[in-house]
UniProtKB/TrEMBL annotation:
The keyword Transmembrane helix does not apply. Pfam families: HTH_3. This is Helix-turn-helix domain-containing protein. PANTHER family: HTH-TYPE TRANSCRIPTIONAL REGULATOR, METHYLPHOSPHONATE SYNTHASE. The lineage of its organism: Bacteria, Bacillati, Actinomycetota, Actinomycetes, Micrococcales. Keywords: DNA-binding. It comes from the Bacteria. Residues 15-69 form the HTH cro/C1-type domain.
């Protein structure tokens, strides 16, 4: 249950509590505030947010101060238990059990409600104990994803900064060139130098004393990687970053420099104009957006998430999924039920086998996007998925939207459709009874363990970076 939903539920309980103290029925109170009893019932059940004028009227009719009515405290012990039960039953942990929710009706005694809530607490405690040791990176990642979700994944200050820097480089249209990136660096007092001996733990190194940004000599086809790394290095200076004091700060700085680089490679004004025109013609496609600005498919997909809600008036989701089905990166503000562990973290969780992010691996034609509609407990979604491969493994990139927004995209006419009931484990995570009975206890698979799962980041000024190697590198190059 999200924070806003929880606040509405508490407000509803408080309204019901004060109405009960005044001995008023729903219809009687509704008549006092010029609201139908059925509409008032929706407010009391946390299913509708009342207008400010309605809150003022309720406050006056119930004889309580507005601040008292809006307090976030449960009005009674019974209400606190009902609210806690609602939060527990809305959690991914409970959803994974595939059990129906229990309605806290008046027929359920306080003692019974205490027992049910106690069981949920114990279930949560045991699940938390099974997650291994506290994982700061996962917690910080989860908090950062929620923070960006609240902002529609859009950072206007960095957008403006990127637009200013790109224009100052002389860039006017098309893909940002290496020369223009070099001009941007020179305006900041830096020279880009390409070397083949960067420490393995770094992507680039900025020599603040001598005004140099060291980059690797080669990158992915098209040079997007080199341009992006140079822009990220410049972003630290432009954004006034200081050595991070916490892992949270380190992750936020990394997000900001990635955002700045993307906003330079795909400037807001040109990108929005391109996307709005494509939407008008009902031919939105990440493939076209990618090709127009000379970036990778993933970069275009992520950039689309920055602009779609703020400038195209649509909600959406993004997924990067490994070939084994593990979710590597994700974002949503359209209600798609992303898989999470008990902490709310999505990284490393298995995506439903029926989603296009995984079915795309089964297609023989991988040169273009694959399209699919998927019916889920949260509604029907349309998705476009492109697969790719690194030296280590294959992956898929997915951008999707709710059914009613598919009309703006190329590929909306696809007849491919699937049904997913995840997080119910009966969907794709639990073997059929006959198969499970046949093989349970008769097999011992050897798991392929992702090495990074057990590898802590080396300590140092910057997490994951070997300071000794960096300082030795700078010393060697400072004399050249």
């Amino acid at each position: 249950m999200k924070a806003g939903t929880a606040d509405l539920a508490t407000l509803g309980h408080r309204i019901r509590h004060f109405r009960g103290e005044r001995g008023l029925t729903l219809d009687q109170l509704g008549e006092l505030v010029d609201l139908a009893g059925s509409q008032l019932s929706l407010i009391e059940n946390g299913k509708r947010e009342p207008k400010l004028s309605t809150l003022d009227a309720l406050s006056a009719a119930l004889g309580v101060e507005l601040a008292e009515l809006l307090s976030r405290e449960a009005p009674s012990r019974r209400a606190a238990l009902e609210l806690e039960l609602g939060r527990a039953q809305a959690s991914p942990l409970y959803a994974s059990l595939g059990l129906p929710p229990i309605r806290a009706s008046r027929g359920i005694s306080d003692e019974t409600l205490e027992s049910i809530v106690g069981l949920h607490r114990e279930l949560q405690r045991r699940a938390s104990e099974a997650i291994a040791t506290p994982e700061e990176a996962r917690r910080a990642n989860t908090e950062m994803r929620e923070r960006m979700r609240e902002r529609a994944n859009f950072l206007p200050d960095i957008e403006r900064l990127a637009e200013e820097q790109v224009r100052a480089s002389g860039h006017r249209s098309g893909a940002l060139t290496h020369r223009e990136v070099s001009v941007m660096a020179e305006r900041l007092g830096f020279k880009l130098i390409y070397v083949d001996d960067l420490p393995d733990s770094t992507r680039s190194i900025t020599d603040l004393e001598n005004g140099r940004i060291y980059l690797p000599p080669a990158s992915i086809p098209g040079g997007h990687g080199l341009r992006s790394m140079a822009l990220q290095a410049m972003a630290h200076r432009l954004l006034g970053h200081t050595p991070p004091a916490s892992y949270d700060e380190f992750l936020w700085q990394r997000l900001e420099i990635n955002y700045f680089a993307a906003a330079c490679l795909m400037p807001q004004e040109a990108s929005v104009a391109f996307l709005q025109e494509a939407k008008k013609e009902r031919r939105l496609a990440i493939e076209d957006f990618r090709d127009a600005f000379g970036v990778t498919h993933e970069a275009a997909a992520l950039r689309f998430t920055n602009l779609a809600t703020s400038h195209l008036d649509m909600t959406l989701h993004f997924l990067r999924v490994a070939g084994d089905g593990a979710l590597l990166k994700g974002y949503e503000n359209d209600g798609l039920p992303l898989p999470t562990d008990v902490t709310g973290s999505i990284e490393g969780q298995w995506v439903c086998k029926k989603w296009s992010a995984r079915t795309a691996f089964e297609h023989t034609n991988r040169t273009t996007e694959n399209y699919q509609y998927t019916d889920t407990p949260a509604g029907t979604f349309w998705c476009a998925t492109q697969t790719g491969r690194t030296d280590a493994a294959e992956f898929s990139i997915t951008v999707g939207v709710p059914f009613n927004q598919a009309k703006w995209f190329r590929g909306r006419e696809t007849t491919l459709r699937a049904t997913s009931s995840c997080p119910d484990e009966n969907c794709c995570r639990r073997a059929p009874d006959g198969l499970a009975e046949r093989w349970s206890g008769r097999a011992w698979p050897s798991a392929r363990l992702h090495a990074h799962v057990l590898s802590p980041l080396p300590s140092g000024t910057f997490p994951g970076v070997d300071d000794v190697e960096v300082y030795a590198f700078l010393e060697a190059h400072a004399e050249q």
